[in-house]
Amino acid sequence: MRIEIYNRINKEDKAEKEIIYLTKNYPGKTKYLILAAEFYYSNGNIEKAQNYYSKAEKINSNDPGIKLSLLGFYRKENNYKLFFNIVDSLIYGNQITIDKKFQILNSLITDPKELNAYRVEIKSVVNKLEVKFPDEIRVNILKGDFYANLNEYTRALEEYKIYLREEQGNYYVWQQVLYLENINESYQDLYDDSKIASELFHQSPVFYFFYGVSCIQLKKDKEAVKVLKLGLAFVGKNNALKLQYYSLLGEAYKNLKQFDLSDQSFESALNIDHKDLIVLNNYAYYLSLRNENLGKALKMSKKTIEAENDNSTYLDTYGWINYKMGKYIDAEKYVKKAIEFNAKPSSEVLEHYGDILIKIGKTEQAKIYWKKAIDTGGNAERLNKKVKNSE
After folding, report:
1. 375 located within any domain
2. What is the pTM of this model?
């Protein structure tokens, strides 16, 4: 249409003339009145826009084209009372297709500001859609997305799984399920579901990845290696995912005490991105546990604290490597920071700090931190032995 062309080339005056011509010569055509309303609104003339919307509604207030255009108008004007009135009428009525109804609700669910501000109203409309179409299982995806975007992951999973009981061929839903199970740390569910998903979509590297994650968490490291090597063949040019694969393989091989293969995997990950902080930290820490290549470990760890100097995990690793190298003063400095920057330091960090303190002659303080480590779930037998030996 010429109006759209004029708008694109910033010829608003010509576009306006065309609109005036159409609305005068075809006064009963609501599509031209809607076009006029949208034109004037886009050019900042709200009063004229409302005037044309009123004219269109007088001709046919049930015209879905008018209602859909008004949705955009009220949304931009933050008039959500009238906006939801129209949404309700469109959901209950038969003026638009069910696909269009889903499209409207999806646009609300995926907008974080609107979802948080109008969650009650949106939930009400979603429920109305479910009442209107009780046999439409896509509503469960909509409800799953609704809860997932509100970080209510358990409720979201319930909805997605209701859908999967009826239809297992939806890649998106499987991806959502595995993603949320991983966030929830529901690793047995993640293991069971990722196994099914990777069989259904046997060339999906994402599903093999989640399968590998669950295997490592459940201490099925041999299976993890097998699965990850299989999935790696489908990663292609997705370097970000490939890096995650090599990082996981590094973990699995480390757990199996196949340290050469573990190191090779971490090196492969760093060849993709030599600045990846998680890989640098983990690789450095695992080297320190074996007392191997401590100089290299220290250099890698230093990169992480230079990038994030308040990250408790990275500070602890850097301090611990210094400890392994006999640099106890530096070790104490950084592990102390690791504790200060974490409201709930892990038993491992607390034990590290106790081990360092005993080396610099602060026996009583060392005992305090070992006991704190016990209280936070550390190995009581090993820690009590350290306390006893220090006495």
Report:
1. yes
2. 0.86
The answer as to whether 360 is a domain residue is yes
Amino acid letter, 147: Y
Give, as one character, the DSSP assignment of residue 387: H
Q: Do the domain assignments include residue 351? A: yes
Number of domain units in the chain: 1
The torsion angles phi and psi of 308, rounded to 5 degrees, stand at: -140, 90
pLDDT per residue, tens digit, the chain (391 aa), is 444 533 443 456 777 788 888 888 888 899 889 989 988 898 889 999 999 999 999 999 889 999 999 999 999 999 999 999 999 999 988 899 999 999 999 999 998 999 999 999 999 999 999 999 999 999 999 999 999 999 999 999 999 999 999 999 999 999 999 999 999 999 999 999 999 999 999 999 999 999 999 999 999 999 999 999 999 999 999 999 999 999 999 999 999 999 999 999 999 999 999 999 999 999 999 999 999 999 999 999 999 999 999 999 999 999 999 999 999 999 999 999 999 999 999 999 999 999 999 999 999 999 999 999 999 999 999 999 999 988 7
The neighbour count for residue 72, using CB atoms within 10 Å, is 12
Chain centre distance of CA 191: 19
